From TrEMBL, chain B:
PROSITE patterns: PX (PS50195). The keyword Protein transport applies. Gene3D superfamilies: Arfaptin homology (AH) domain/BAR domain (1.20.1270.60), Phox-like domain (3.30.1520.10). GO terms for molecular function: dynactin binding; phosphatidylinositol binding. Pfam families: PX, Vps5. This is Sorting nexin. Involved in several stages of intracellular trafficking. It comes from Homo sapiens. One of its GO terms (biological process) is retrograde transport, endosome to Golgi. Belongs to the sorting nexin family. Residues 26-173 form the PX domain. The keyword Protein transport applies. GO terms for cellular component: cytosol; early endosome membrane; retromer complex; tubular endosome.
Length: 523, 406
């Protein structure tokens, strides 16, 4: 059973403290070659899923499994094998193949995480990585199993203090959770609170934390005020779907999944209210000020990019961002026009019905009424298609536009990290100069102080360099993972979207085929 | 089938065949056959080449052509309307003025915005707008042709002298468009007419047939107007959605060419799909426009012409009744009796003549209408099916390729 083999020590021994991760990471710096060509470790996990793609709709193979978190479980071919790994081996070898349970996607919208047992970490022989990827994956498939749903929005309270509460349901066989199926009620600010906690912990070390859905004062006000019209129901549905996608992306990230805050969010029935997420709170204002400061800083930092990979990637993401925005605009226009078309078709249907009524030739009158009916059905079809246009295509694009902003943020953090390192080096230089001066002036007590300071700054420089290399490494992995995710996401969603178009056409054929004999029957 | 959809010429020929007889069930008659064999668009004028084939003795030759402009068609139409002899017939509605303004404006805007878009986008949009311009052009040709054919098919109108002059006189008819004063006169005349129409319609008709027709036509006309407007809007939304596909296709293409991962092939394929699907959607919109919107618009005008006929008849009825009253009065006073008698007889004759032909005209109108609707609705359904099937096949092919790749 996957659950049994879930190594509890993983949770204990590896708290998601950043420092620990960092240490663990260090053990493998030598073995982690510049994996530009082969993206981060998660990749192999995804391969068998892709082979099996035929049997489920848009499988979402999780790459989350193989993560640096579990680097201690990697039985490296190097001497720097983690102390833990010998324990793992018996467990690892017994897993013959990934037990992939095809998850039936319940909605067209949500990409579902395919179940894979998380227990057996991959025996990852990094040195023979490229060649062995497929084989090893099949042999030690890590199976990751967690399914998140956001549903049942209900309004709590009244007036301007009202809010929508959403039910967050988790189904999982991971043993880090106390139950295998549980649900809690959360409100929007809880989600924002979660994101801000995760961002503060992980963004500045290079992890791409999925951004939370955006606030909307206008939308929420309408809901609060109690307008029961279609635009507010649409707004709530849009938000619900966005929150679901947000959580799913977050749990797919192997590092973030380990985070206790995330677990608390999913599990505990009571959550402290996250007031810092309000736009006009003190924290909110601080955030805005920080953002402005960051923007200014970004312009002033002139980084010596030693690694062409980063420059190239940044440029790529910039281009991608522009292209996606353009596409998004076009798709939004399509949604708008499709809705218009639906409304106009409905109006025409009514008008045609009236015309049929006043037509005094019986057969023609009947045919016109039939036409009106067909057009009415078609209007429904257009409306459904507009929904598909929006929820599948348009929202995918807007999600990725925001994700890319997060990616850019991570690159910026790397720049800041470099700056810090640079600054430390400069300060160290100054301290050395100061020491030299002291030496000349021959002031023993000051010399001692200077030496202390030098030592301090040497350590800082070292730390700075380590940090910088760490963040660079993490970013490379993250970007690789992100690119894989992106490719899969797009392919899945676009194929689903095309399938929705297929359905529409098939329905259209049905309707017109039914109408044709009616038209021919006009005598 | 798919290739056919892409071909420009195919699109044109479909229209060519369909347009002439869209709204009117016409019998080709060897005695007199009229068509518009060519048309030229010159800045703001359209020159139609009216081609006639006739075995009638009235014409000097058996086959001949002249060049006419829109104003001359209107002149012909108006001459029918003003002719008292034709009061008892449904005068075929005049063709609407050729309107290329919107299209021309769009082409101009495109030219101005050339710098801001990529070469592919520009060529695509240019092709699109040119196709639109062509479609409007073909429509206006068809509508002018239908008018002439209706006149030629009508047993009485085809013998009209003005009509023959129109067909044969190979020089300019020197018909100028109405100047401001005349337009103002027309405007007042129309106002008087509609006011009169209201008064006249208050008179209850003895004849059940006409009473029924009157109520029917009134309601029908209004509903056709509404349906025509809504159908127009629907077709235009359809076209906007199709245009969006165009832009989406371009964006996807850009994404595909710039992406570094293996998704680029995917994007390129989907972009291609959108381009092809867009052509089909545009055609759906065009066909709906042709078969539905145009049909409704035409019958809007015809039902107005039928209403006009009824008005003329009611007018003559009122005149007849007034003449009767005048006669009675004259007889009572024993003054101007002969005059009153003659006038009463004239009115009586006029009224009866109109009533007789009106009845037949209205019956014909119904037959024509039913036939036209039937033809168009059947064709509409067939075309919608054809396009939906084409679309479906495109999508399924694309999906097969995409699924096979991943």
């Amino acid at each position: 059973m996957a659950a049994e083999r879930e190594p509890p020590p993983l949770g204990d021994g590896k708290p998601t403290d950043f420092e620990d991760l960092e240490d663990g990471e260090d053990l493998f710096t030598s073995t982690v070659s510049t994996l530009e060509s082969s993206p981060s470790s998660p990749e192999p996990a995804s391969l068998p899923a892709e082979d099996i793609s035929a049997n489920s709709n848009g499988p979402k193979p999780t790459e989350v499994v193989l993560d640096d978190d579990r680097e201690d479980l990697f039985a490296e071919a190097t001497e720097e094998v983690s102390l833990d790994s010998p324990e793992r081996e018996p467990i690892l070898s017994s897993e013959p193949s990934p037990a992939v349970t095809p998850v039936t996607p319940t909605t067209l919208i949500a990409p579902r995480i395919e179940s894979k047992s998380m227990s057996a970490p991959v025996i990852f022989d990094r040195s023979r990585e490229e060649v062995q990827e497929n084989i090893e994956e099949e042999a030690n498939g890590d199976i990751f199993d967690i399914e998140i749903g956001v549903s049942d929005p209900e309004k709590v309270g009244d007036g301007m203090n009202a809010y929508m509460a959403y039910r967050v349901t988790t189904k999982t066989s991971l043993s880090m959770f106390s139950k295998s199926e549980f649900s809690v009620k959360r409100r929007f600010s809880d989600f924002l609170g979660l994101h801000s906690k995760l961002a503060s912990k992980y963004l500045h070390v290079g992890y791409i934390v999925p951004p939370a859905p955006e606030k909307s004062i206008v939308g929420m006000t309408k809901v609060k005020v109690g307008k029961e019209d279609s635009s507010s129901t649409e707004f709530v549905e849009k938000r619900r779907a966005a929150l679901e996608r947000y959580l799913q992306r977050t749990v797919k990230h192997p590092t973030l999944l380990q985070d206790p805050d995330l677990r608390q969010f999913l599990e505990s029935s009571e959550l402290p209210r996250a007031v810092n997420t309000q736009a006009l709170s003190g924290a909110g204002i601080l955030r805005m000020v920080n953002k402005a400061a960051d923007a200014v800083n970004k312009m002033t930092i002139k980084m010596n990019e030693s690694d062409a990979w980063f420059e190239e990637k940044q440029q790529q993401f910039e281009n991608l961002d522009q292209q996606l925005r353009k596409l998004h605009v076009s798709v939004e226009a399509l949604v708008c026009h499709r809705k218009e078309l639906s409304a106009n078709t409905a109006a025409f249907a009514k008008s045609a019905a009236m015309l049929g009524n006043s037509e005094d030739h019986t057969a023609l009158s009947r045919a016109l009424s039939q036409l009106a009916e067909v057009e009415e059905k078609i209007d429904q079809l257009h409306q459904e298609q507009a929904f598909a246009d929006f929820y599948m295509f348009s929202e995918l694009l807007s999600d990725y536009i925001r994700l890319i902003a997060a990616v850019k943020g991570v690159f910026d953090h790397r720049m800041k990290c470099w700056q810090k390192w640079e600054d430390a080096q400069i300060t160290l230089l100054k301290k050395r100069e100061a020491e030299a001066k002291m030496m000349v002036a021959n002031k023993p007590d000051k010399i001692q102080q200077a030496k202390n300071e030098i030592r301090e700054w040497e350590a800082k420089v070292q730390q700075g360099e380590r940090d910088f290399e760490q963040i660079s490494k993490t970013i490379r992995k993250e970007v690789g993972r992100f690119e894989k995710e992106r490719v899969k996401d797009f392919k899945t969603v676009i194929i689903k979207y095309l399938e929705s178009l297929v359905q529409t056409q098939q329905q259209l054929i049905k309707y017109w085929e039914a109408f044709l004999p009616e038209a021919k029957a006009i005598a | 089938m798919m290739e056919g959809l892409d071909d420009g010429p195919d699109f044109l020929s479909e229209e060519d065949r369909g347009l002439k007889a869209i709204n009117v069930n016409l019998q080709s008659d060897a005695a007199l056959q009229v068509d518009i064999s060519d048309a030229l668009s010159e800045r703001d004028k359209v020159k139609f080449t009216v081609h006639t084939k006739s075995s009638l003795p009235n014409f000097k030759q058996n086959e001949f052509s002249v060049v006419r402009q829109h104003e001359e068609f209107i002149w012909l139409h108006d001459s029918f309307v003003e002719n008292e002899d034709y009061a008892g017939y449904i005068i075929p509605p005049a063709p609407p003025r050729p309107d290329f303004d919107a299209s021309r404006e769009k082409l101009q805007k495109l030219g101005e915005g050339e710098g801001s878009m990529t070469k592919e986008e520009f060529t695509k949009m240019k092709q699109e707008l040119e196709a639109e311009y062509l479609a409007i052009f073909k429509k206006t040709v068809a509508m002018h042709e239908v008018f002439l054919c209706r006149v030629a098919a009508h047993p009485i109108l085809r013998r009209d002298l003005n009509f023959h002059v129109f067909l044969e006189y190979n020089q300019d008819l020197s018909v100028r468009g109405k100047n401001k004063k005349e337009k103002l006169e027309d405007f007042f005349k129309n106002m008087v007419k509609s006011a009169d129409g209201v008064i006249v319609s208050g008179v209850k008709d003895v004849d059940d047939f006409f009473e029924h027709e009157r109520t029917f036509l009134l309601e029908y006309h209004n509903r056709v107007k509404d349906a025509s407007a809504k159908s127009d809007r629907m077709t235009r939304s359809h076209k906007s959605a199709a245009d969006d596909y165009n832009r989406i296709g371009s964006s996807l293409y850009a994404l595909g060419t710039q992406d570094s991962t293996d998704i680029c092939k995917f994007f390129l394929k989907v972009s291609e799909l959108f381009d092809k699907t867009r052509k089909i959607e545009a055609r759906v919109s065009a066909d709906e426009d042709l078969k539905l919107s145009d049909l409704l618009k035409y019958y809007l005008r015809e039902s107005q012409a039928a209403k006009d006929l009824l008005y003329r008849r009611s007018r003559s009825l009122v005149d007849y009744e007034n003449a009767n009253k005048a006669l009675d009065k004259a007889r009572a006073k024993n003054k101007d009796v002969l005059q009153a008698e003659t006038s009463q007889q004239l009115c009586c004759q006029k009224f009866e003549k109109i009533s007789e032909s009106a009845k037949q005209e209205l019956i014909d109108f119904k037959t024509r209408r039913v036939a036209a609707f039937r033809k168009n609705l059947v064709e509409l359904a067939e075309l919608e099916l054809k396009h939906a099937k084409g679309n479906l096949q495109l999508l399924q092919n694309c999906l097969a390729v995409l699924n096979g790749d991943t």
